[in-house]
Specification:
Number of strands of chain A: 0
Oligomer: heterodimer
Structural class of chain A: mainly alpha
Protein name (chain A): Putative spermidine/putrescine transport system permease protein
Keywords (chain A): Cell inner membrane, Cell membrane, Membrane, Transmembrane, Transmembrane helix, Transport
Low-confidence stretches of chain B: none
Number of domains of chain A: 1
Organism (chain A): Aliiruegeria lutimaris
Pfam family, one (chain A): BPD_transp_1
Bound molecules: adenosine-5'-triphosphate, magnesium ion
GO biological process, one term (chain A): transmembrane transport
Strand content of chain B: 35-45%
Low-confidence stretches of chain A: none
Strand order of the largest sheet of chain B: 6-7-8-3-9-10
Order of helices and strands of chain B: EEEHEEEHHHEHEHEEHHEEEEEEEEEE
Largest sheet of chain B: 6 strands, mixed
Shape of chain B: elongated
Helix content of chain B: 10-25%
CATH superfamily of chain A: MetI-like
Helix content of chain A: over 70%
Radius of gyration of chain B: 24 Å
CATH topology of the largest domain in chain B: Rossmann fold
Mean pLDDT of chain A: 87
């Protein structure tokens, strides 16, 4: 017996799907244009701008800079975010709700506000972070960590604390209990959170706009800067690679998680 | 020899007192149950013993050693949880091996002990399975094996049967008791099910609102309850309002009204003062019904109000003056059913009437 989805719902779902997919398709097609300018529909298809992107010192270095930045951001955000989520879920104190809201606030605050606030902070305190990669890194960590707190927090909310208690009374120290019991059972939440952190950092624009150093621009800033002066399809080609990277990272983790499940089954 | 000892132990969460000052001794090898309604502090007491909670006051001793300040991992106490808490990311074998690995035993010893534990709980060949591939009863067995394999000094069980269906519960009740007896391990068992407590325990502590109201053998608790609460909480009960006429140690005379005075027993932990009001407990199965019968012993005259057929027995509601009683009569052909409205006499033997404050 197949599950039947009501027709109106199916149509809505397809429309929603298209709505999300169309911009991606436009970017991909625009990046594959054979013409001189960034247009849609493209004037014939070619790999001309893809090759231009691959040969462009500026774009390639921006791409890899963003990649490294996202990776470093992911690592720190995952550690801080997991620790914060643990703290928030394992302790009871007055003002815990407020603290949680505070930790998660970067998700709801506009990136412009965070970017500008940090920019102003760096400048006014003069701690030498203004428009440096370190300052930018801090901004990205601040912006991405809440996503880790969110996913790990969700994993911990459904985590049965008596597993920890069982481990303790069987003789495991708090550290061992965390490593051997807690961590494996919230690892999916942590993985999801770190992918989020990576993707959010890789695509971050507003925070980077205020904080990026002139000589090392992340990809979104590089694309924006080049489009300001020249309506160049290689920006769309760069977009293709960004989309590919993000898709690959999502697929890869999905695969890893599924393989783990498969192993568990047998 | 005492195995577990509570000395003035209490626990408060902020302003709510979950467990009032408690003194308690559990003997070596004893099966000790804590029985009481939801929220009475059973789990809190157990969790203090396991080391997950620190008592607000008092000390806890295990085999004479003060363990109050030890973390759970240093106590050598095994606990089985209501939801079993099987590690979902490990198979049954690794679950059971967990405590042995933490004790740094060598691989061969671990293998031998785990296999023996699996056999002990009747799960030989289940080592490769994961939690989601086990039934409730099997999870229960794994949880127990995981604890027993570390040879704890004390075994704690927090409502281990409440997640099982009725048939399984009956089976596991005897199974757990058998294992406990064969190892001779001191066991503290928490339940809100009186039938579990009565069947399995050597002694029972009846708790309410953070207090241990009575500690005694199942027979004591059932037949000589120390208060109305206990009388009503355990088993079915008829509690008649009476006045104490005379009190003499564990015996007394009570007035059922209209000058009808009958003798009754009293728990030896209770003092009744003459003139005070009390309850007279007569269990439904202790009453006999007859249209009219000559004979000795206390009796009441009444009228059948209602009759409920329950298969193995018939349950009558009888009004006798200002009292209303429930009587259980075995369903046997020679005991022909009485109809509502019938005049009856209620008999009970002197020993089965218990006065409670
Ligand atoms: N961590 C806690 N914080 C605050 N109050 C608590 C905490 N744990 C228990 N309590 C309170 O202490 C009292 C006793 O709880 P406990 O869990 O010991 O009851 P219980 O007898 O095990 O009940 P149940 O049969 O429902 O499991 C309850 O009123 C409960 O609300
Ligand atoms: Mg409980």
């Amino acid at each position: 017996m197949g599950r039947k989805i009501p027709l109106p719902m199916l149509i809505m779902a397809i429309l929603g799907f298209c709505y999300m997919l169309v911009p991606i398709v436009i970017v991909v097609l625009a990046g594959l244009t054979a013409g001189e300018f960034l247009t849609f529909p493209p004037e014939g298809l070619s790999l001309r701008w893809v090759i231009a992107f691959l040969q462009s010192e500026k774009y390639l270095s921006a791409f890899f800079f963003s990649f490294r930045l996202a990776l470093m951001t992911m690592i720190v955000a995952t550690i801080i975010g997991t620790a914060a989520a643990l703290f928030l879920s394992r302790t009871r104190f007055i003002g815990r709700g407020a603290m949680r809201a505070f930790f998660l606030s970067p998700v709801v605050l506009p990136g412009v506000v965070i970017g500008f606030a940090l920019f102003a902070f760096y400048i006014s305190t003069g701690i030498g972070l203004t428009r440096t990669i370190w300052g930018l890194w801090i901004g990205h960590i601040l912006y991405s960590t809440p996503y880790v707190i969110g996913t790990v927090g969700a994993a911990l909310a459904s985590y049965d604390v008596s597993l920890d208690e069982a481990a303790r009374s069987l003789g495991a120290s708090p550290m061992r209990t965390f490593r051997k019991v807690t961590l494996p059972n919230i690892s999916q939440g942590i993985q999801a959170g770190s992918i989020f952190a990576f993707i959010v950092s890789f695509g971050q624009f507003e925070v980077s706009l205020f904080l990026s150093a002139p000589n090392s621009e992340p990809l979104p800033i590089a694309m924006y800067n080049s489009l300001r002066y020249k309506f160049d399809p290689s920006a769309a080609a760069a977009g293709i690679f960004a989309i590919m990277l993000v898709t690959a990272s999502v697929l890869l983790t999905n695969r890893l998680v599924n393989i783990r499940r498969l192993l568990d089954r047998n | 020899m005492s195995s577990v000892e509570f000395k003035g132990v209490s626990k408060a969460f902020g302003r709510t007192v979950a467990v009032e000052q408690t003194d308690l001794v559990v003997q070596q090898g004893e099966f000790f149950s804590m029985l009481g309604p939801s929220g009475c502090g059973k789990s809190t007491t157990l969790r203090m013993l396991a080391g997950f909670l620190t008592p607000t006051t008092g000390r806890i001793l295990v085999n004479g050693r003060d363990i109050t300040d030890l973390p759970p991992e240093a106590r050598g106490i095994g606990i089985v949880f209501q939801n079993y808490a099987i590690f979902p990311h490990m198979n049954v074998y690794d679950n059971i091996a967990f405590g042995l690995v933490e004790r740094r035993q060598d691989k061969a010893t671990i293998r031998r002990k785990v296999e023996a534990a699996l056999e002990q709980v009747g799960l030989t060949g289940y080592g490769e399975r994961f939690e989601r591939e086990l039934s409730g009863g099997q999870k229960q067995r794994v949880a127990l094996a995981r604890v027993l394999v570390i040879e704890p000094e004390i075994l704690l069980l927090d409502e281990p049967l409440s997640a099982l269906d009725k048939k399984m519960r009956e089976e596991m009740k005897f199974w757990i008791k058998d294992i406990q007896k064969s190892i001779g391990i001191t066991t503290v068992y928490v339940t809100h099910d009186q039938s579990e407590a009565l069947t399995m325990s050597d002694r029972i502590a009846v708790m309410n609102e953070g207090r241990m109201l009575q500690v005694g053998t199942p027979v004591d608790i059932y037949e000589k309850p120390a208060s109305r609460f206990i009388a009503e909480f355990i088993g079915d009960s008829n509690l008649l309002d009476v006045t104490v006429v005379k009190s003499n140690g564990t015996r007394c005379d009570v007035d059922l009204g209209d000058g009808l005075i009958v003798p009754a027993h009293v728990s030896d932990t209770v003092r009744l003062t003459p003139g005070s009001s009390a309850g007279l407990l007569i269990r439904p199965e202790m009453l006999r019904l007859a249209p009219a019968l000559k004979g000795e012993g206390p009796r009441l005259t009444g009228k059948v109000v209602d009759r409920v057929y329950q298969g193995a027995l018939r349950r009558y509601h009888v009004a006798a003056g200002r009292h209303e009683l429930v009587v259980e009569v075995p369903n046997r052909p020679e005991l022909s059913p009485l109809s509502p409205g019938a005049e009856v006499q209620l008999f009970w033997s002197e020993e089965s009437g218990v006065a409670v404050p």
